[in-house]
Write a structure and sequence with these properties.
By secondary structure, this protein is of the alpha/beta class. It has 2 domains: 184 residues, Rossmann fold, CATH 3.40.50; 130 residues, Rossmann fold (3-Layer(aba) Sandwich). It is built from 17 helices and 13 strands. An 8-stranded mixed β-sheet has the order 3-2-1-4-5-6-7-8, with helices on both faces. Strands 10-9-11-12-13 form a 5-stranded parallel β-sheet. Helix 10 runs antiparallel to helix 11. The chain is globular and about 70 Å long.
């Protein structure tokens, strides 16, 4: 059997990353989106997202791609993935209108026997509710992480596939495509796969909540969370890759959506989700750390202070601002004089980090971009007027920051530690 032709319908972050991974793995890719302007830009090599390695992958694999806004081109595909990012509102509810529109556009154009796979995240029950032949309809869990998405798409830990009947073998082209990655393929009911995605994120949030809760305690009793976390990771029941870095609340949108989904379903079906509500409360509490610390240290006594902010994106190596802790902090500092920098967010007011820090009374490093780690604390101290640095993620070298006379505040560590 020749290699299957793969289509990705919806060319947002999700579709672009998985499309690049498929092409890099040797598959011919039809990259479809109804937005003709977006397709033209992509065909010219202009990507709308920031992701390490993604632009290079598209340049090197350009001959494997067909970029199109014409749905008729989908007739060449053996497998078509619905791959548009699903937006959420402030309550964590998903807007599935685009997902449904793409499904309505794509499926009628597929050739007889071609497979449709819903790749974007949907709530449990969505896939089975679609009025499509179930032997041609699947749901596949995506487990991308902004900032390392291409790496995860190229080297997946496993594939999780939702099916109408898990005992039935997958279509041969779909099987060949999945087996090319050489990882386990877990078949399960549609609803189980849809809930598996949520379960993964709930486990991550649980770890983050443990880290945030105990890191705050560390700040009060002169313990150091950065010393504790490595001990936990050496426990095989917890693991080396556990999410144990404290942060400024849950960010990005996807985790919030899944917590909201669990609480909504629990209410509908009479199950307990009290622990999930506690995670949400803990996240909101820790999101206030930077603003409350700055007010206590500086703003309450000097309301006209100049404050530099490094980082606006919700995390490093992405342009996304969705539920950004940095923007949440800025929103709590109304009336404060701010000068901002971010390597990829165009709304920043300074072009260089040290330009933003010049004559500042305090600096907040709210997104741990690698570029900031390379800046010498002595240069920061020279640029600033004050000495207060809020470095929640521990970007700066601790010893060198002390030598430079900076007063650094880190999550999980007392200020004088």
């Amino acid at each position: 059997m020749s290699a299957p032709v793969v289509a990705y319908a919806g060319l947002t972050h999700l579709g672009l990353v998985y499309g690049a991974a498929a092409a890099t793995s040797g598959f011919r890719v039809i990259a479809f989106d109804p937005d003709a302007k977006l397709v033209a830009a992509l065909g010219a090599g202009k990507l709308p997202v920031e992701e390490p390695g993604l632009e290079a992958a598209y340049r090197s694999q350009r001959e494997r791609f067909t970029f199109t806004s014409d749905p008729a081109a989908l007739s060449q595909a053996d497998i078509a993935f619905i791959s548009a990012d699903v937006p959420t509102d402030d309550a964590g509810l998903s807007d599935l209108a685009r997902t449904r529109s793409l499904i309505d556009t794509v499926f009628p154009r597929l050739k007889s026997g071609a497979t449709l796979v819903v790749l974007c995240q949907v709530p449990p029950g969505f896939t089975r509710s679609l009025a499509l032949p179930k032997d041609r309809l699947y749901y596949q869990v995506e487990t991308l992480v902004f900032g390392s998405a291409l790496e995860r798409a190229l080297r997946p830990e496993r594939f999780i596939v939702g099916c109408d009947d898990p005992a039935r073998e997958l279509p041969a082209p779909y099987t060949a495509f999945l087996q090319a990655s050489g990882c386990p393929v877990l078949r399960m009911r549609y609803e189980s796969a849809e809930l598996t995605k949520i379960a993964i994120n709930c486990c991550l949030v649980a770890s983050i909540s443990v880290a945030n809760t105990l890191a705050e305690l560390c700040e009060r009793i002169s313990a150091d969370w950065s010393e504790i976390a490595p001990a936990l990771k050496l426990d095989r029941r917890i693991g080396a890759h556990a999410y144990l870095s404290p942060g400024l609340g849950i960010a990005g949108g996807n985790l919030e959506r899944d917590l909201a989904t669990v609480m909504r379903f629990a209410k509908q079906h009479g199950t307990d989700a009290g622990v999930v509500a506690a995670w949400v409360k803990n996240s909101a509490h820790r999101r206030n750390w930077a603003a409350s610390t700055l007010k206590k240290l500086l703003i309450d006594r000097k309301p006209d202070a100049l404050v530099a902010v490094w980082g606006l994106a919700y995390k490093e190596n992405t342009h996304s601002l969705k539920n950004s802790p940095s923007l949440a902090t800025i929103a709590q500092l109304k009336g404060v004089n701010l000068k901002t920098h971010d390597p990829v967010v165009p709304s920043a007011t300074a072009k260089e980090p040290l330009e933003a820090a010049r004559n500042a009374d305090a600096l907040m490093i709210l997104t741990p971009w690698p570029q900031y780690r390379a800046i010498a604390p002595a240069d920061i101290a020279k640029a600033m007027r004050g000495r207060i640095v809020l470095d929640p993620y521990g970007v700066l070298d601790r010893a060198k920051a002390r030598e430079a006379g900076l007063q650094v505040h880190v999550l999980g560590r007392a200020a004088d530690a």
